[in-house]
């Protein structure tokens, strides 16, 4: 922590931090700019009525922009969806897989494809949202769209696509010229923006007597305990020892040193909860619009707090943990790279045996990570449905907040280490002269 406090004394790092804050301020200002042609009061009432559906989840990730239907209403979700699609396609399309192995040049091309995919998804989502809004109305029956028609659809599509493209550009600027993790910080800022209203609602509940003052310290203690558990699991690693054989090239000896291969417990990150939450909220979203008997029964059976909801939610989190880990981490490639560089796991033969060993360790870690993610994500639903706690101590939002905070601190520390290393090299050169 003392190292982070000294970050303000480094001019370059201080400039990067101020630039990041300025870009986040621009993003939050854009959230308040509404898209023309919308009845804001009717739309706000609609979102209050459908808070527990997909609309509420997307509104959370957009930082309230969808509820205001601002120019940033789509948020950064199209970019995340395009990134995930490109990652999945690298497994199927050999050309993309070869690009991924080409280093920075290949990564630039993949980034360009991701941008094209983001624009395409934004256009599709913009058209669907504009069409859907024309058929919606507020709780009192007032229309949400003031002047429906082709002109409204085109204007909404262009506005939302431009807004998402601008957010994507902001994220890339923060990554290059700021402290890094630009896209993650934008999502972080959107979620954290709802904290003041959540605190105000909690204070009102305390004043109304729905939450006793005696219960508040236990809630705060429990909240810190949950955050501590998330920090522990997000930073925990299983380090596989790696030994490099000695190689003699001419008169020099290379290798011979020992290292380790770090494997995180939660390799999949927050992708499994996001996918699982989206699927689980889909029946509730349909139940709010389709007044058919069997649709209503399915929506009620899969509503938060029911047995089927917990079973399916946990099952999908476990499935997506294994699926996303299998897509993003290849034990065969790791074992092959170790073999090419003269590295091996002590006691394990290089090649296929090493790949099988890494896969075995990875499977066990994924099981532990899936259990951890399931517990954290189910926790809010249990507290609300069983204990009548009116706010969330877990879930995807808290995972994102804690994970991004840890990554941001690591980025700042990396900049400080690099700056100190460069200063040491300059001092060494000066002494040598």
TrEMBL record:
Q: Where in the cell is it found?
A: Cell membrane; Membrane
State the membrane topology.
Multi-pass membrane protein
Give the transmembrane region(s).
Answer: 68-93, 113-132, 152-171, 178-199, 211-233, 267-292, 307-329, 361-383, 389-409
Name the InterPro entries for this protein. Answer: SecY, SecY/SEC61-alpha, SecY_CS, SecY_dom_sf
Gene Ontology terms, cellular component aspect?
Answer: plasma membrane
**Recorded superkingdom:** Bacteria
Quaternary structure and partners: Component of the Sec protein translocase complex. Heterotrimer consisting of SecY, SecE and SecG subunits. The heterotrimers can form oligomers, although 1 heterotrimer is thought to be able to translocate proteins. Interacts with the ribosome. Interacts with SecDF, and other proteins may be involved. Interacts with SecA.
**Protein role:** The central subunit of the protein translocation channel SecYEG. Consists of two halves formed by TMs 1-5 and 6-10. These two domains form a lateral gate at the front which open onto the bilayer between TMs 2 and 7, and are clamped together by SecE at the back. The channel is closed by both a pore ring composed of hydrophobic SecY resides and a short helix (helix 2A) on the extracellular side of the membrane which forms a plug. The plug probably moves laterally to allow the channel to open. The ring and the pore may move independently.
User: What's the name of the protein?
Assistant: Protein translocase subunit SecY
Q: Which organism is it from?
A: Candidatus Desulfatifera sulfidica
Q: List the taxonomic lineage.
A: Bacteria, Pseudomonadati, Thermodesulfobacteriota, Desulfobulbia, Desulfobulbales
């Amino acid at each position: 922590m003392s190292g982070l406090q000294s970050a303000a004394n480094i001019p370059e790092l201080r400039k990067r931090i101020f630039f990041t804050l300025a870009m986040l301020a621009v993003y939050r200002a854009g959230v308040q700019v509404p898209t023309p042609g919308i009845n804001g009061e009717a739309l706000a009432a609609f979102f209050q009525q459908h808070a527990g559906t997909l609309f509420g989840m997307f509104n959370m990730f957009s930082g309230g922009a969808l509820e205001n239907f601002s120019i940033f209403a789509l948020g950064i979700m199209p970019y995340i969806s395009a990134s995930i699609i490109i990652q999945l396609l690298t497994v199927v399309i050999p050309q993309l897989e070869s690009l991924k192995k080409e280093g920075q040049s290949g990564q630039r091309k993949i980034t360009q494809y991701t941008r094209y995919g983001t624009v395409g998804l934004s256009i599709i989502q913009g058209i669907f949202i504009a069409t859907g809004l024309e058929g919606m109305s507020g709780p009192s029956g007032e229309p949400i769209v003031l002047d429906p028609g082709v002109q409204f659809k085109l204007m909404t599509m262009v506005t939302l696509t431009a807004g998402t493209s601008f957010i994507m550009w902001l994220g890339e600027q923060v990554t290059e010229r700021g402290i890094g993790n630009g896209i993650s910080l934008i999502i972080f800022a959107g979620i954290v923006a709802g904290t003041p209203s959540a605190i105000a609602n909690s204070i009102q509940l305390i004043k109304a007597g729905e939450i006793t003052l005696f219960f508040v310290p236990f809630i705060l203690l429990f909240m810190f305990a949950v955050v501590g558990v998330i920090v522990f699991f997000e930073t925990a690693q299983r380090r596989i020892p790696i030994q490099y054989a000695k190689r003699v090239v001419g008169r020099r000896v290379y290798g011979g040193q020992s290292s380790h291969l770090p494997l995180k417990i939660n390799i999949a990150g927050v992708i499994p909860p996001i996918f699982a939450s989206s699927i689980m909220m889909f029946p509730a979203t349909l139940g709010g619009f389709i007044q058919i008997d069997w649709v209503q029964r399915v929506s009620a059976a899969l509503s938060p707090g029911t047995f089927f909801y917990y079973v399916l939610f946990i099952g999908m989190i476990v499935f997506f943990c294994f699926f996303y880990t299998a897509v993003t981490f290849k034990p065969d490639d790791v074992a092959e790279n170790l073999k090419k560089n003269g590295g091996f796991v002590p006691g394990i033969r290089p090649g296929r045996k090493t790949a099988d060993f890494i896969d075995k360790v990875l499977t066990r870690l994924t099981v532990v990570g899936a259990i951890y993610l399931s517990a954290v994500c189910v926790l809010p639903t249990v507290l609300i449905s069983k204990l009548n706690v009116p706010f969330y101590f877990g879930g995807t939002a808290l995972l994102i907040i804690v994970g991004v905070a840890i990554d941001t601190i690591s980025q700042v520390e990396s900049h400080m280490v690099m700056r100190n290393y460069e200063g040491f090299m300059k001092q060494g050169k000066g002494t040598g002269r």
